[in-house]
Amino acid sequence: MITDFKGKKITVVGLAKSGVGAANLLSRLGAKVTVTDIKGIEDVQTYLKKLNSGINLELGNHPSWLFDDVDLIVISPGVSLDNSPFKVAAEKGIRVIGELELAYQVIKQDTGYSPSRADQDSGLKIQKPEFLSVTGTNGKSTTTALLDEMLKNGGFNTILCGNIGPAITDEIMKYGFKVQDAQFSKKIDYIVTEVSSFQLETIDSFRPKGSTILNITPDHLDRYHLMDRYIDAKCRIFLNQEADDFIVLNADDPYTKKIEKEKLKTKNNPPRIFYFSRQKEVKGAYYKDDVIHFNIPDIAESFPLNHESFRIKGVHNIENAMAASIMALLCGCNIDAISDTLKTFPGLEHRLEFVREIDGIQFINDSKGTNVGAVMKSLESFNNPVVLIAGGRDKDSDFSILKPLVKDKVKALILIGEARDKIRKAVGGVTEVFVENDFKSAVLRAKSVAAAGDVVLLSPACASFDMFKNFEDRGRQFKKLVTGI
């Protein structure tokens, strides 16, 4: 582990949000930084403008010397560790980490972190902020944002970052840290992070005070190939957690027992385990008789909360609310702040987002539904007939899992994108299917098929990169088309 970055030669791979944040932080800490990206200069102009001066660039290729004669390599989440330069670097003893690990080391180790000048002058010992981390296949962003809002409403100072919002390295240069010439005065209690399996692949010492694995369903199998490899990546969230830390698990998830038996209970000094469930009473939080109950030792026997008062809807959001509430309670948040947050939190864009009602038809933007598990959760949330718009770039998904729900819930299926034929073969025959060549035609077809009382749901079960820049672009184009009908 590097405790002093000054003068160290460091390669940052990937010039996007996390790469820019990592490079800028390292340069502020005195490192000799080179950023490399396979893309050419014309494709990375947006990020180039955000880089500090003095950072070297190698664009359009990855010269071998960038991985040979360096002290550290920091890679972006989208870059796979299976690439040969990183294997060669590891064989030579060169550490390869991600931006999440870098941020953690800077904050938790003596690598440049300093409390504000006012706090130093007061003579008070300043506690460094704790990390709270959320992972899972679905629901990460909503749960992370909910937890952050609960803590803020409970009087804590927090940073919300990671896979949601800005890069962690960007944020830690703004609040409560002294990095060379920059000083800020705001004390931070918790850094609330959404973390993906890709980010967790490259941790080393990262140890969140509290963590949760919301659920695990098949996803990113184009990268992992085997489900066990995907599960292993998710489970790295508790790699370094100990008995005075905690983890929150989904008691209803089919993989939870395997995670407990094979990974948590074989771990030395494992973290405390709490659960949430919609099916049974557990230690943590459970859903019974349309009410969420809390059962957390040393905090209270029960805090019943009626989910009908929540602003966010859907069965998956009951689970998200339970997970966030357990974590907030264990961090010292009061139940009133938690309850008030659930009553007012509006949800996030592209997650079962209500767009408009036209002639009695509700249009819902769930563009973040990029895998089969997410679409299943979304479909379970509706009692009305659904006209489902799906398709995009396949991530080696098994779409046949959707067949029972499509038969039960979906009035018509509108398919687009590269995966349209694969989805039609997997679920065809149980509902009416339409295949469209472009997005506008798909939205208009959905409108023509739907009737008053129906729901038109964009929940693609696929990545967006065949037709759109990202899932946000897909969702916003959907909203624009719906608004123009």
In short, what is this structure?
With 485 residues, the protein is of the alpha/beta class. It has helices at residues 17-28, 45-48, 84-91, 99-108, 117-122, 140-153, 168-172, 197-200, 221-224, 227-235, 256-264, 315-330, 335-344, 372-380, 403-409, 420-427, 439-449, 471-484; strands at residues 9-13, 32-37, 56-59, 72-75, 95-98, 130-135, 158-162, 190-194, 210-213, 246-250, 272-277, 284-288, 291-295, 305-306, 353-358, 361-365, 386-391, 410-416, 432-435, 455-458.
Question: Could you characterize the architecture of this molecule?
Answer:
This protein has helices at residues 17-28, 45-48, 84-91, 99-108, 117-122, 140-153, 168-172, 197-200, 221-224, 227-235, 256-264, 315-330, 335-344, 372-380, 403-409, 420-427, 439-449, 471-484; strands spanning 9-13, 32-37, 56-59, 72-75, 95-98, 130-135, 158-162, 190-194, 210-213, 246-250, 272-277, 284-288, 291-295, 305-306, 353-358, 361-365, 386-391, 410-416, 432-435, 455-458. The protein is an alpha/beta fold. Strands 7-8-6-9-10-11-12-13-14 form a nine-stranded mixed sheet. Strand 1 (9-13), helix 1 (17-28) and strand 2 form a beta-alpha-beta unit. Helix 6 (140-153) packs across helix 12 and helix 6 (140-153) packs across helix 13 (335-344). The chain is globular, with a radius of gyration of 23 Å. The N and C termini lie far apart (57 Å). Residues 115-126 and 179-185 have low confidence and may be disordered.
